[in-house]
Design brief:
By secondary structure, this protein is an alpha/beta fold. Helix content is 30%, strand content 19%. The strands form six sheets. A six-stranded mixed β-sheet has the order 11-6-1-2-3-12, sandwiched between helices. The two termini are 32 Å apart.
Amino acid sequence: MDLPPRKSDSLLSADGRNRSRAVVRPVVAVILLVCLAASIFAGVRVVSFLSGFGNPLTEAGDAFNPPAGSLSWKLRHGQQVNLLLLGYGGSENDAPYLTDTVMAVVLDPAHNRAMEVSIPRDLSVQVDAWANGPPVAYKVNNAYAIGIDNRSWPGKKAEFTTGKHRGGRLVEQTVSSVTGLHFDGYIGIDFKAFRDLVDAMGGVQVCLDGPLDDYQYPDYHDGYISGGIHFRGGCQQVKGEQALQLARSRHAVQPAEASDFARARRQQLILNAIRKKATSVGAITRAPALMDALQKDFDSSLTLSDLKGLYDWSRGLSDGAVGRVGISAADFLGEFYQRRDTCGSFSVYILCPQDPSYRSLHTYFSNLLVDHRVLQEAAPVQVVNGSRTLSDLGDRVSNTLQPLGFKVQSSVRMRPEEQTVVYDYSGGRYPLTARWLASYFGASVVTPASATPPTPNPPMGGLAVVLGHQYALRWIGQGP
């Protein structure tokens, strides 16, 4: 079939100028929106706002008696909930529907915890949107735009052509194909709404690991802010524009803050800061201002019942109960620029999955919520690269385990091995961790019998996972 027409190559961030102009839309409304539910009976303004969620009276009843299987019902009954958070440019951007922030949030009400996973905007995905043709490879940040913009992207399936949630549905389908998660709903917020929303809350407190100085921060006129933007390390109160700058910055002079992963980390910090502010005592008094901020500049498939359920549940969520993961070129993805690859094209910076089938990512997402009893063992874990050809496999796999809560030591290499083995150097001290690792990697647990350790520099008193050649093949999508 003919490729769907595109407005311009700027949708793919093909050159540095367009990439710097693209506005990174931090999506931090997920928990914040829910505080509006408590104001359901506040008056005509509330009814007007709630009309975006359907029939206000029906929604009011569902908010206190949620239907079976709904998001709110799942939270009450301890079932996992998956949300998709989107940030897009809106009217203040020349590419208004690019979702340059895509975040999956996995809620575990049974153990009162959550995981936030940032999906990089430059990830190549197969977008299955067209009625008479196969899926087409685009960056993930194009999916929402493809669903929303019928004029630039004709020939789509009916479900992505009509209805106010057509863009969100396409992103949910696309990200589900990458992660294996089924999403219970999505929330999207644009540039203006985010800025107004933070200001309506009176600002939020954000704690940075270190300073950030960016002299290439874009202004609103296709240029850069004179003198750049500057933030000190540590905790500080920020207003809407400042919060946007932290979430948007791409070119900090500090290497630790200049990567897409660092930007995703800051977005996650802002999300948590807003969650805390929204659920604090007295925050509900700001509900009218929040309604004004969000009324025209957000998009969500969540119902009022969903929002109330999220608010009720999130009030008891502590900082330590929120885990954060950023999928990046340091783990499951590879970076390519100005070359033709299986998932990219010439002159386009793109992130390609090392496993084109996404099976490795599916396995990872299905194991995001590690049993708290496993993590309580606090077992020292070392990843040993026993593959034949993938020189960085040990480092990559180590980078995936640490955000899940494991105490991961520096990886090492050894002679090639065919099968994956978990060596228990602890004398059985960490049985739950050994069992989890064996299940996750498809390995057997072996207690070394000889005085000579089978792995180099072993974690004495801990566990070593030797990644064999068969696992390396699965990592790149070529094994069973």
